[in-house]
Every structure is written in C-alpha cells, then in structure tokens.
Queue: 2 jobs
Job 1
Amino acid sequence: MLRVWSNFIDGKWVRSSSGKTFKSYNPAKPSQTLGIFQQSNEQDVERAVSAAEKAFLFWSDVPAPGRARVLFKIRDLLTKNKQRLGKLVTTEMGKVFAEGLGDVQEAIDVFEYMAGEGRRLFGHTTPSELRDKFCMTVRQPIGIIGLITPWNFPIAIPAWKMSAALICGNTVVFKPSSDTPLCAAELVKLMNKAGVPPGVVNMVTGPGENVGGTIIKHPKIHGISFTGHKDTGNYILKNAGIKKVGLELGGKNAIIIMDDANLDLALEGVLWGAFGTTGQRCTATSRVIIHRAVQHRFEQMLLERVHKLQLGSGLSKDTDVGPLINQAAVDKSHKYVQIGKTEGATLLCGGGRPRMKGCYYNPTVFTNVTPTMRIANEEIFGPVLSLIPVNDLNEAIEVANGVEYGLSASIYTQDINKAFKAIKRIESGVMYVNASTIGAEVHLPFGGVKNTGNGTREAGIEGIHEFSEVKTVYVDFSGKLQKAQIDVMKVLK
C-alpha cells in the first residue's frame, strides 16, 4: 500500500487543509507511483509561517556553534543513509545511480562545510577615524526564509539552501518540486531525526501557484531563495516585495574547443556535460563552439561514442543515460529537435524517442548550427547538443557570450594565453579550463550572470552572505559626543 506523506509543520507531520493529494512517479517506469503527497494551499503556508515565526526567537538565539552541532548530525545521518537516498534520487528523478549517490554526497559536503562556518560567521573590524571609538560588523539572521527548489538535484539543492539558512540562525518554509517530493520528505525526516527543533524547518508540498505564490508574497517571510526557470524568477522579483531574494535561473552553457585542444579529453568533457543527468542540469553543456580545423575529426569521435550510450533505468549498471523527468520534458526536447531541423541545422544522430517504455529521449547532436538559431540560444534541458563552428578564439568568445544566460563555461586549449583570455572575457559565473561545464565544489560560490540570476551566489562563503544580514556596530568610549565628518579634523590637533 502506498504511503500518504504529510506536510511537516512545527515538528509534526500534518495533512493539508485542502484534503487534496497528488502522486509522485518513477520517470523510468511512469506507471509506478512512488508516494502520495499533500496538495497544499494558502492555509497550510500560513501554518508553516506561524511555526517558523515562533521558532525563530529560539533558534536565532542558539549560539552558532550550537546550531553547527545539529548540522553535523545531519551530515552523519546523510552519510549513514547515502546508499538508500542515492537509490531514491535515481528512482524518483531518473539520473543514473552514480549521480544519485553524488547528489547525496553533495548534501553531505555542504552540511559539513556550513557546520564549520558556525565557528566563524565572520564579520570584520576596521579602525575608526576618531579617537576612542571601535568599529566592527557582525552577521545576523534574516528571519524566515522561503525556499523553493527544483527536481533535478532533489537532495543537493535543498541542502545548499537549508544548511546555509540554518547555520545563520534563520527558520525555513520549504516548498520542494512536485516532481520529487519523496526525496524532499526523506531529507526533512533525517533533519528532524538529527534534532532540528520544531518549527525551524517546515515543508509544504503542492503547486507553485498556491504554495509557491503564497510563500513569495508573504509579508512575514523575509527572504526567498529560488532555483528554477527564469520566468518564475521574473515573477518572484515582481511579487516578493521588499525581501532579500536569491535566484539561480538556468543556463545555455558552452564548451569551446580550440584547434590545439586535447580532443580525447574534450570528448570526455562534452559527453559528460551534454548527456550526464540526461542534459537536465543548469550547468549542462548544450553548445560546443568548435574550431573549424578540428570540427570534422571531433564530430567523428563524438558520434562513435554517442552511438554507444545505453539508455535505461538509472538503477541498471549498464545505463549511461537515464530518463527525462516526465513526458512534458520529452515533448520539449522533441519540439526543439524539430525546430533545429526547420532552422537548417544538420542532425548527426538521435532526434527521436526510443522504442522503450519510460520518459526517454535519444541523445541528439546537431552540427553546423549558427549562433542565431533557437537551439543555440534557448534552454532545452534535455539531451540535445549543438555544435557551432568558428574560425578563431575571438569568434568563439563572441558566440559564447551571445546568449542571455551566463552560468558555466569551459575552454579546451593547450595555450595558457588563450585560456586566460577566455577566463577574462567570457561572461559566466563559473569557468573551467580543460574540464566540462560542471558545477562548483561546495566551498566555492555557485551562480551566474545576466539572466542566470540576480547576483547572489550559493555555497561557499557567499552562501553565508545570501542568508544573513550585515550589521555595522560602533562603540564610542570617549565619554563625549563625537560627530565623525564634523569632528574628524580635530584628531590631528
């Protein structure tokens, strides 16, 4: 019998006041239902906000090293349950098992890192321009944070956000994707077991228009952190009011392959970047900008390897490429393949649905793509790769920068001068040399420029900055009123 999962509010599992539910499915086998979840409404969000508001007074007053001890316990429980959770990620989201384990490992790493910040949370001190006056900054929590997370990293991304939010002393109202609510519920269950106090973390499942919209607009929620589509990001900025908002909104990432590149190394990077996670990463490689001198040779190498990629359930050891998240994602990939054909790009391989049950799409490669084509500009979020030939590095950089996004970029070259020129001129938040367009390690900032986000970064010390406020403190022990800009010249006398 299927388990009916509840919302998690004020330390308790409670049903939605709507009385409605929805199901989560296995994308490798859509007929398999994984669980039943609450289709929550505005009243449920209100209950969660009330619990978070009450808990904030206690949690924000716990010394940060004390909060860190709870995060270390979460890390330990994630480590203990890594195999089980990795299998769950693969089952509910579709990525191959090794990637499912990597998803959980990222959560382990970021809880460990953020727990370590509990003994730092650095401010800074600076000299005053006046005598007998002390100046410093300290970090303080924002308040209640609304977290809205996607399905493609169903444990890692919530962990990025919650670990940083909690170590800073905030409380959380968490809405996971309706495509992967089981992963979210299991994560919250472990956090509760680790000793997160009631009301500090609250999870409300359900549709974006009701649950997400209410979180975004709620006057008692002081910060929003969202990862997802740029259209939703625009909606958040227009409707959140005066809140601290962090957005990570996707990419159209490029690998540049120069004529002096190690093509064998570049090939591995392209295969992983384009078809790892079935192209369902915001850092996925959707464009290869390749020097014409090596274009034909690289295409032959690429085709040979793509034809050998095995589609199937991520739980199978023989699988290289798992399913897309749902049928809508399959239809979207196919739509863009038809657009590419209409635009005049050359289809080298793929371009259709395999004859197998599940949300699968064949790994697809287009070549002779021009920079103005839609398949070279719009985020597809599927296993569709465009090869764009160029004549030199300057043209390659111009093409790389010619899209609205700027998340991750890469260049393969043996010339250090070309590498540093690309580092300097390419518009992206993450840059790799001789490696694929993958994400960041948890102790380094992650995020992008242009329409990829609004300037915030997650992970690393920037994650602390996202989920805290800076307070400037002055202590005047002169025993008299000093007026900085008015009295400053008196200190020389």
Job 2
Amino acid sequence: MDAVKQRLSHIKAHFSKKMFVKGLGVVFVLYALVFTTVFFTKDATYQKHLDKLANKTTTINDLHAPSVDIEHSGETQTNAQVINQDNQTVINKKYPNAKPLDAVPVAGLYQETPQGLIPMVREIDKLTPFKAYKRPFDMKAAKGKKIISLAIYDIGLSQIASESALRSMPPEISFIISPYSQQPDLWTRQARSYGHETWLPLTVETDTFPRHDVGPHTMMIQSTQRENMRKFNWLLSSGVGYAGFVSPYNARFLDSLGDARPIIEDIAKRGLALVNASSYGNETLRSTFLTMNAPYADAPIWIDIPESQENIRSKLKEIEDSATKNGYAAGIFNPVPVSYQEILKWVETLEEKGFVLAPLSVQTQL
C-alpha cells in the first residue's frame, strides 16, 4: 500500500513538473510571437506614418535649369529643390490658416555621410538650410508690433505630449526635436506639416552637469576636440529639415570659447543658426557668431523652470515686459501639461496687447 502511495506521489510530482514546463513553453511561444510581430511590423508602421504625411512633391535634379521664382520668406529660390505642391491643404483644424511648410530635405542642401544626411550650403546659389527651412514671416505686416517667439524643447521624447503640441499649438511656435527620440525625421515632417519650423537641441554640457545630463552625445569641456566633433557630427545627422540649434538651459560649454569655437564655426559654415538659451548673456559668443555673418539670437527665458503655474505666469509677464522694452523677446518651454495650458491661454491675449507671435528664426533678424 505504501509502495502504491509512493508511486502515485511520484507520478503526481512528475505530472506537475511536466505541466509547469509546458506552461513555460506556452509563455515563451506567446512572447516570441509578440516580439516577432512588433519587429517585423515596426518598419511598416513607420512607413505608414510617412505615407500619411506624404505631400505631392516634385524633385528637379537639373541644378543649371532656368530659375523659377518661388516666394519663400521674401527670398527667391531656384527650382533645384523639393517643392511642396500641396501647400494649400489645411491640416490643423484649430488654425485653418496654417499651411504645411515645404517638404524636406531640399535638394542640394545636404551631403551624404555614413552617419546620415548632414546639412550644407547649396553651392549653386548659396542657399542656406536656415533660409530654406525657417517658417516664412511677414516683417512688414508686423511693423509697429512687439515680436514674441516661443519654442517647445525636446519634442519627440513623449509621444502623447508631442502629439498634443501638434494638435494644439499655433504654427508660429517652433519645435525643438530631440535627437534622442525614436524617429526624429518623422517628428520633423509632422511638425512641418502643421506649419512649425524645427530646430535641434545643441547637446552640450550645462552648469548643472551631471545632475542635468543632455544625453550620451553631450559635448564636454574636458573632452578632446576630436571627441566633441564626433558627437557633433552625430547630432548633425540625427535629423533633416532643421533651421539650426538651440542650446540647453545654462550651457556652460558655450562659455568656454576654446572648446566651443570648432562647433560654432561648423554651425556657421553649414548655414545654420544658433539660439543661445542660457539665462545669462554671452556677448563674446554673440560677437563671435555674428562676425562669421551667421544667424544668432538669445532666448534667455525658460518659462517653466521651475515648473509651476505661478512661475509660468511670472515668466510670461517677463516676456511681455522684455518685448515692450526691446521690441522683441523669446521664451523656451518644456512639453508638460501645465505649460501647455497656461501658454495657450496667454497666446490668445497677445494680439489685443499689441504683440505678434513669430517663429524662433525671426529673433535672429532683430
């Protein structure tokens, strides 16, 4: 009898172990199916998004063909570029006058490298990426009004916050696309389809590093020039269609001109703009950049640092006061709900106060 009980106990244990192993096998198969589905459909999903955004475009490869006048920020472009043929399409229902910007990249404004496409000045007519990719703005129509520019930092890191910005923000507000987002080019195309010009953050060391770390490709004061240029080339190739770079909050790297000069010179050489978003001025940086005849601006007001309703309202008032005093002002904010709520309410009051909202690129012209 004991032998029978022992045998039954052994069979029960063996059966339980066998069922456990089978259960693990089923779980493994399910996970494998999920992984396979995601892996083999991610490219299709990405392409689906691109197809959804696609405009009717025409690429003219003959750079020596007779020029055709195309209105773009008061400048004449040749037909040697990608031209958006569907720019009358209304995409943003909240702002029906917002038209998509031209498709990117523009022919002749990039060079191909192993890392990706890197912006450059077009040889045939010296058109710069900054001039081609900035949002058009009528300076004459804004005469007599104080100009205010706003930009959202790190678009693309949060899909929910970024899509909310696309749906809710006026097209005059510029988008700073994070190079660490999963698909920077997709976010750039989406932003431009809603009428927003785009920028990249300049991933450099701040005065709060390492507490405030701007990522693994941060250009550092104590790094070699070769290492910093390697990181900068990665940044250059992380997206297409951007007008220039915006520094992080209190960028200490830019105060070290010996370290920053090779980066600054390359930005200027490639026809890109620099917006210094440090909360303090840097006249040496400004004069150095302007000496190279490159677009430059300061945007020292971070609207939501610290992130509170009271502070945001105070900073918006500071922007108004600065614009009233100087004729122009700019502010940067992060993709967080409290900032969106306060800024959207505030933007609606600007016209009656005698202010006009303009893209960030306009600050380099003032």
